[in-house]
Amino acid sequence: MNKNWRYSVLGAGALMLLVFGSTMYLLTKRQDAMLRQQEYDQASAVFDVIIIARTWNSRFGGVYVEKKPGLVSSPYLAHPDIRTAAGKAYTLKTPATMTREMSEISHARDGVSFRITSRKPFNPDNAPDPWEDESLTAFERGEKERTTVATRGGKRVFRLMKPLHIDATCLPCHAVQGYKLGEVRGGISVDLPFDEHWELLRKNALYMAGLALLLTALFAGTLYAVIWTLLEKLSRQNALLSDLNHTKDRFLGMAAHDLRNPLAVIYGIAKVLKEDSAGKPHAGLADIVVASAQRMLGLITDLLDVSKINAGRLDLKIADVCVPAFVAEAVHAQTFLAEPKGIAVAADIAPGVGNAAFDPDRMRQVLDNLISNALKFSNPGTRVTVGARRDGPELRLWVQDEGIGISDEDLPKLFGEFSKTRSAPTAGEPSHGLGLAITKRLVELHGGRIEVASLPGKGTCFTVILPQ
Ligand code: HEC
What we know:
The chain is an alpha+beta fold and 468 residues long.
């Protein structure tokens, strides 16, 4: 079973983590933005309420309240207090004082505080902090508002600041500082507690990260399980198929083996009958029986070879063989087949071929097969050449004919079991299509290979290449 699929699952998991992770990241970002917007809206509402209250106060040029014991008059006004004819005392509350006192109430109620500041303050307590100072500079350049999240006294706060502009109601008290209508007098910063939201965001981010991991694990796990199950099934199926194939080979081998013996008997007896019947009227019939039995024996022997090779039961008996003698013998054996067809068979052995290591019986089977094939597809008056030569570390045995050749279409099918090409033998010789398949497997068992080159109409050359 291919183990690489596990890496593919790992890759898919990583990709999923990336997808889930970035989705969760974007969702978290979006939530952060939404919470900030909420804070902003709330701070803006607070700011508006302050402005409304201040406008009310400023319209009256400040508001007098009864000066009860303990109430301190503003040190920044020349005449803050008045006394009625009845002797009651009142003191002036400027918009600034009112803003500050409102902030104290608000802070005590729900932690929301605000501050009035200016870069040219009457009251040094109203001097801006660094962020407020930065914001005031920005307002002087025309900016409308600024927000930030800061830490104050160990707690996170959301801060919104907007400018305060001089209008007609401010001038009675602030004209002395040289302000003109519409100028930025200062600003008000609103601080909202942000810790709760911050905590919520943090928890949410953790939750999202956990979810991304969980989803990825779930996805990768499912993928793993599905692929694993499929592969298991496939491997069981493969085992079954290979079992079936073995059964088929065994059956083939057994059938061929059991057919061969009785057939050999028939063949032997038919030959005797053929000799006996020479000159008698039915002599022709005996001829047919002998030829048929011979053909069947050939087929069964080939079938046995195929089954042995497929089952891996064919053992080679490698020997040190004298190549020129070996080739000459093969050529000589085939001449009795070639002569009746008027075809010449010749050996062409390069000098210095010498000895080589291979199984002489099996290689002889290979050569016989190739030569008889060449004869089958050759016309009278042509020649078949069987050659041998050395090529570096290889021994090359070749069989060249001047026959009808093999078409390009047929070349790839040539070595398949039971494959038949479209060209017919020149004298109608029988062929069951196993010969070349066996030839190829025998050469491969020797660690070699077989090559074929053909020109239709000109001839074919098979080359067996054996490493030495
Ligand atoms: C009745 C007089 C009076 C009016 C009207 C008035 N202010 Fe003030 N303002 C003061 C005094 C006094 C202070 C400083 C005293 C304090 O902080 O208690 C002050 C403080 C401020 C501050 C804080 C910086 C500082 O100087 O200490 C700002 C900003 C400010 N005023 C803006 C305005 C604007 C804008 C208006 C008009 C909408 C306005 N004021 C109307 C008297 C007034």
